[in-house]
Design brief:
By secondary structure, this protein is an all-beta fold. The chain is built from no helices and 6 strands. The protein is 0% helix and 44% strand.
Length: 71
């Protein structure tokens, strides 16, 4: 579980890391509201939550088909 800070909303949003793309280094986050986005977690303000942590599955370059949320 993670929380991602959205500076434009001045709010934290919770979700799960579902996949990791080894080519781009991005992770797919599925938010609690069902939305998904690919993020470079090193460039985001992230809080890692202890419960329910699992290793995300690794995807190829083609796994980047989900749309990104706009910030």
């Amino acid at each position: 579980r993670v929380r991602i800070y959205w500076p434009t909303e001045k709010e934290w949003f919770s979700g799960r890391v579902m996949k990791c793309n080894k080519v781009t280094g991005e992770h797919q986050v599925k938010y609690d509201d069902g939305d998904k986005e690919w993020l470079d977690l090193e460039a985001e303000k992230v809080q890692w939550l202890g419960d329910g942590l699992q290793s995300p599955s690794v995807v190829s370059k083609s796994g980047k088909s989900d749309s990104k949320k706009k910030r």
